[in-house]
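Incident log, support desk, overnight shift.

02:14 A customer reports that sequence design results differ from what the structure should imply. Their input is reproduced verbatim below. On-call engineer (initials T.W.) acknowledged and began investigating.
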């Protein structure tokens, strides 16, 4: 594999060069420079989270997300919680977890809650695989009131993105070897995304009843992330646009958990490998470990990520401690 020259960025598609601005449904233009002003009113001193999944090595897309997470938290006087989303036991690897902790330390992104040392020392409340009882206890009231049912549908039977409800009234016993689904209401969820503006989603039309535990006994992303955001008191969720469609269903699940006021959401653009293909963890030419091997410095990597995010001009080296300055005091 040819490693990238550290004088040039890896071959990826740049974000919108005009400050990564987004056009809302109403035609209004929003950019990162507007975020601090709006969020300071809606979510002063927020608690946000950086939540990688240890199913591969960190890449530049993760660093873009880290720039947003630590940048907004710092500019707003907030805090960052580190969460390892290893709910998928078949794909998650401790070797990847160790690597991402090393990469965060090398980059200089230090969590305020659940520091990297806490994960290295043993069980940690920031690691989803150590929170099985939390997810089970959170689901218990929904089981008791009949919101949860067993589903034995195969992938072939669930070929559509919207689950048909085939198992809703079959009365299958909840146990191992079957999926567990939560009945959701056919209501619209409306929220104002920090970058994308007003959004309206109807989860019943997007996905149908939500799978919260798969037939292998794994808690799903939708349930684990929603439960964690609720139980850990997350007030600001910052993530890529690939997860925008998850927002409505997570707001509805959180309401079932007793959370009436959802967190604020900011969905930033993804770093793309091509115009239609997002970066994946198998893209070694953008992997942080490979950039380190190519003698990039942490400041060069973060500066390049800020360029890809549309937050800074090219050629800047930026330390992790300085990323709040990309947001602080700016108005679009």
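02:41 Re-run completed on a clean worker. Output:
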């Amino acid at each position: 594999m040819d490693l990238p020259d550290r004088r040039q960025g890896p071959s990826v598609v740049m974000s919108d060069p005009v400050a990564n601005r987004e056009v809302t449904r109403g035609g209004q233009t929003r950019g990162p420079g507007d975020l601090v002003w709006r969020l300071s009113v809606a979510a002063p001193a927020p608690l946000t989270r950086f939540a990688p999944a240890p199913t591969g090595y960190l890449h530049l897309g993760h660093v873009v997300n880290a720039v947003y997470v630590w940048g907004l938290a710092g500019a707003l006087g907030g805090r960052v919680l580190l969460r390892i989303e290893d709910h998928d036991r078949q794909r998650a690897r401790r070797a990847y977890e160790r690597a991402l902790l090393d990469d965060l330390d090398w980059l200089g992104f230090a969590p305020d809650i659940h520091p990297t040392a806490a994960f290295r020392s043993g069980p940690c409340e920031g690691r989803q695989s150590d929170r099985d009882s939390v997810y089970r206890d959170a689901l218990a009231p929904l089981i008791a009131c009949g919101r949860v049912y067993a589903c034995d549908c195969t992938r072939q039977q669930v070929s559509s993105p919207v689950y048909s409800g085939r198992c809703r009234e079959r009365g299958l016993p909840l146990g191992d070897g079957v999926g567990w689904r939560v009945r959701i209401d056919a209501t619209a969820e409306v929220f104002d995304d920090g970058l994308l503006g007003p959004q309206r989603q109807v989860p019943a039309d997007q996905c149908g009843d939500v799978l919260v535990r798969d037939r292998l006994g794994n808690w799903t992303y939708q349930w684990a992330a929603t439960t964690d955001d609720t139980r850990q008191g997350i007030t600001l969720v910052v993530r890529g646009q690939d997860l925008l469609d998850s927002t409505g269903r997570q707001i509805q699940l959180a309401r079932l958990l007793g959370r009436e006021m959802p967190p604020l959401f900011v969905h930033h653009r993804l770093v793309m490998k091509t115009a239609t293909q997002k970066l994946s963890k198998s893209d070694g030419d953008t992997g942080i470990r490979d950039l380190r091997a190519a003698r990039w410095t942490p400041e060069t990597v973060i500066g390049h990520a800020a360029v890809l995010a549309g937050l800074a001009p090219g050629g800047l080296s930026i330390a992790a401690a300085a990323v709040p300055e990309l947001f602080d005091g700016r108005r679009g």
